[in-house]
Design goal:
The chain has 128 residues and is mainly beta. The chain has 2 helices and 12 strands, in the order βββααβββββββββ. The chain has a single domain, classed as 6 Propeller (Neuraminidase), CATH 2.120.10. Strand 7 and strand 8 form a beta hairpin.
Amino acid sequence: MVHPDGKVPVIHLSHLELSPDAAWMYFTPLFGPILCRVETKYLQNPRLTSDAIAAHVEEVARIPPVTGITADATGTLYLSALTEGGVLTLAPDGKLRTLLRDDRISGPSEGTIGPDGYYYFPTRRRPE
């Protein structure tokens, strides 16, 4: 889509998730490809400029496009993988793994950890 003034619009969406101890803010743009994090102590310091905060941003992992990020109590991140037909996890050890993949899943949305400790996410089912 091109705007009438000839410019291509830019979508400024991102996904954010706090670590369970609130020490880190994880984030990625809508279409990835990199998951980043920054210590929240830098975000909470009103004297720091955006450039000063950016100097503390760390790249965590290369990821596919995701529609949501959720953390559980252990610090494992659950990534609703838009193009993977499922859910990936990023463990505190930094390893990215496929938790669930099924061709019937289409565009899983951001999930949540239920009171039973399980990860729940909404999705559309692909037509069979």
